[in-house]
Amino acid sequence: MFSRVLIANRGEIALRIIRACQELGIETVAVYSEADKEASYVQVADEAICIGPASPAKSYLNIPAIISAAEIADVDAIHPGYGFLAENAHFAEVCTDCGITFVGPDASSMRLLGDKVAARDLARKARVPCVPGSDGEIRDEAEAIKLANKIGYPVIVKAAAGGGGRGMRVAHNDISLHKGFSAARMEAEAAFKNGTVYLEKFIVEPRHVEVQLLADKSGNAVHFYERDCTIQRRHQKLIEESPCPVLDEKTREELCKAGLRLIKEAKYHNAATVEFLLDKDKNFYFIEVNTRIQVEHPVTEMVTGHDLIKLQLKVAAGQTLDLRQRDIVHKGCAMECRINAEDPARGYAPCPGRIEKFVVPGGFGVRVETHIYQGAMVSPYYDSMIGKLIVHQPTREETIATMKRALREFRIEPIKTTIPAHLKILSHNLFVKNKVDTSFIERHLS
Ligand code: MV4
């Protein structure tokens, strides 16, 4: 196992990783920007190194500064958390070249799966159901229009280098496809310096379901079941839960096994999430792979009882998985609400500032992941998530009841948060009755 690990991140996930390291007897090195000098994760780490000014480009995305800190602190490994450099293949490569273990997959796996066209190819090879669409990239409008007429409208044009909803265009006819094709290509070229696009049938009113996986460096891989992340706003998840409340046992097993086949085909190691769309008839289609630990990983931890961060560290250190698939059992229902410093009444505008009052909920089945404390500053430089409230109970009904109780117990002043929005969602008939799709927030809570 590693002796010292550097955490190349901030906020709640930095604290989450430091805690896992402490329990494994690993020394921790935090890095921080000038804006995070007083942050709680900086205080609890064994060592802390300032890596630059508040601006992410000059600190948490600054590869030379982070590598220098790792060299000075003499760490064995770097955990990237999520966001920032977590899916940057170049960074993973630099770590390896410097003799530092990157807690994540190889740079080559990140490049392969980061290319959605290549990932789709791989999924087909692994007999994972894909959305009907193009076989590889689409080179021009004529090819797009020909294929769209074959598979039928609506269709969606996506950027191969995209993800998280950037560089996509939906088309309902030849005219809008003609426009959408060049728009998607231009946007992709500008955003990712890669104008490669592909085409898929547009799945109407889907649910978003993802499978959590973990693989070691000896080729062993297991899944930790699925999470349903349908409740989103502009591709920002608000609530995640497990199990997916509309899946039957048979479909669920097929979905989890499909995820497993895909990462085995990729000869992948470390944590991965395979994302699927679930249509009205409960057909699932592969869309993309995330090669990092995700924000919502605690939902899976609660229903399976396994610490995913500790497992990531163990497999990164070369340990073989001592978990067999049959040792991973799913119990009850877990749900996570992301508490953001945003005002739902003003179009979810960010609300940075000092937190004067911060009282966290507790009690049976309640877990809070946050780096915030009374007197902490919420900086305008970083994302607005200030904490995650996770609830675990035997049934979905009980989980919702406990979540509502815990949300009401949470006291955050004077800034506005997403708590009132969560309370509305949890009381909404369509959410309670599992009749939502990815457009729920825009359609019913705007
Ligand atoms: C789709 C789709 C419908 N059909 N692909 C959005 C983000 C990216 N991960 C994929 N996305 C979508 N791909 C096909 N073929 C609808 C979406 C989508 C979406 C997916 C998951 C969660 C929220 C979403 C919101 C809008 C669109």
Q: Classify the helix fraction into a percent range.
A: 25-40%
Distinct ligands, ions and cofactors found in the model? ligand MV4
> What's the number of extended β-strand segments?
22
Structurally, the number of domains stands at 3
Class derived from helix and strand content: alpha+beta
Mean of pLDDT: 97
- The number of distinct helices, counting runs of at least 4 residues, comes to 15
* CATH fold title of the largest domain: D-amino Acid Aminotransferase, Chain A, domain 1
What integer value in Å does the Rg equal? Answer: 21 Å
Write the CATH homologous superfamily of the largest domain. Answer: ATP-grasp fold, B domain
Plain-language structure description:
Strand 15 (342-343) and strand 16 form a beta hairpin. The chain has three domains: 4-103, Rossmann fold, CATH 3.40.50; 132-201, ATP-grasp fold, A domain (Dna Ligase, domain 1, 2-Layer Sandwich), CATH 3.30.1490.20; 207-444, D-amino Acid Aminotransferase, Chain A, domain 1, CATH 3.30.470.20. It is 34% helix and 27% strand. Helix 4 (89-97) packs antiparallel against helix 5 (107-114), helix 7 (141-151) packs across helix 8 (174-192) and helix 12 packs antiparallel against helix 13. It is an alpha+beta fold and 446 residues long. The radius of gyration is 21 Å and the shape is globular. The chain has an eight-stranded antiparallel sheet with strand order 13-12-9-10-11-14-21-19, with helices on both faces. The N and C termini lie far apart (49 Å). The protein contains 15 helices and 22 strands. The model has no long low-confidence stretch (mean pLDDT 97). 50% of the residues are buried. It has helices spanning 11-23, 40-44, 63-73, 89-97, 107-114, 116-125, 141-151, 174-192, 249-265, 297-304, 308-316, 396-409, 419-427, 429-432, 440-444, and strands spanning 4-7, 27-33, 47-52, 77-79, 101-102, 155-163, 166-171, 197-201, 207-215, 221-233, 236-242, 270-278, 284-290, 333-340, 342-343, 349-350, 353-354, 357-359, 366-369, 377-378, 385-393, 411-413. The structure holds ligand MV4. Ligand MV4 is lined by residues 131, 156, 163-165, 200-203, 206, 208, 232, 235, 277, 287-288, 438.
